[in-house]
Amino acid sequence: MTEKTETPKLPQPGAPVRGSKSGQPIMVLFDLIGRRWSMGILWNLSDENRTFRDLQERCGSASPSVLNTRLKELRAAGLIYNAEDGYALTEDGRQLFDKLEPLGDWAMDWVEKLR
Amino acid sequence: MTEKTETPKLPQPGAPVRGSKSGQPIMVLFDLIGRRWSMGILWNLSDENRTFRDLQERCGSASPSVLNTRLKELRAAGLIYNAEDGYALTEDGRQLFDKLEPLGDWAMDWVEKLR
DNA sequence: TATATTGCTACGTTTTTAGTAGCAAGAAAA
DNA sequence: TTTTCTTGCTACTAAAAACGTAGCAATATA
């Protein structure tokens, strides 16, 4: 396994981001986690560490290019890191997941109503 | 003001969606709210109803085409509706916002650490 | 030494968003 | 009643992001 630490264009607090020109923290966060696969990655790392290929499969055979871009961004954002046995949530990453998790149950009720 | 009820391609539970081929409820939700401006719209509607143009300004002068697409999707998803005085959150929309809201405070701490 | 597995990069295609222009319908002003 | 504004969009082109496939270097395994 090779190691890369390149920093991708991370949404900057105070500066305009995708989806918002205000640069408010919440909008910076929404920009980041709103990108495709971001939340799915956090979700899949919540129960155990996963390798690149493992994540690829679990994320619907996601494009390696996009997946890698997301991984770099999430690392730059301090939400995940590259552990011995694959990618893992950082403390911050877990905190974020904890706040995202309740959406899981809610989503189940919601899709039920949609029919 | 004209009225439109056209149904856009909404992520379908059980079927593959953007960002996930599993079709799990949480992934369907992530697909929907992960699209650009979605979460920002919910955020901006949380304190009061807003007209199309009003939302446009608050969403960083968002493209009317994209904004309108998002509004249609969120309406089809039963999260917002077109009230007399502009767009408004439905009951479900408010529930979702309530679960999203804690991210606001967390985001402030998070961006602080990033420096 | 041969075979897998892992973590990517490259690149052409498709999808999504951005950005600008403008129009129809209703309200307000003249 | 005619003008002027505001509102809620649609249309269109350009740019950016994501998809999808191929493949390669490095390490692990047989």
Descriptive account of the structure:
The structure is a homodimer of 115-residue chains. With 115 residues, chain A is mainly alpha-helical. Helices cover 52% and strands 7% of the residues of chain A. Chain A has 6 helices and 2 strands; from the N terminus they run ααααββαα. Chain A has helices spanning 25-34, 38-45, 52-58, 64-76, 91-100, 102-113; strands at residues 80-83, 86-89. In chain A, strands 1-2 form a two-stranded antiparallel ribbon. In chain A, a hairpin with a 2-residue loop joins strand 1 (80-83) and strand 2. The longest helix of chain A has 13 residues, at 64-76. Chain A is globular. In chain A, 40% of the residues are buried. Mean pLDDT of chain A is 87; it is low at 1-6. Chain A binds chain B through residues 10, 13, 16, 18-22, 25-30, 33-40, 43, 59-61, 77-78, 92, 95-96, 99, 102-104, 106-108, 110-111, 113-115, and chain B through 13, 16, 18-22, 25-30, 33-40, 43, 59-61, 77-78, 92, 95-96, 99, 102-104, 106-108, 110-111, 113-115. Chain A binds a DNA duplex (30 and 30 nucleotides) through helix 4.
From the structure above, extract its key features.
homodimer; 115 residues; mainly alpha; two-stranded antiparallel sheet; 6 helices; 52% helix; disordered N terminus; DNA-binding
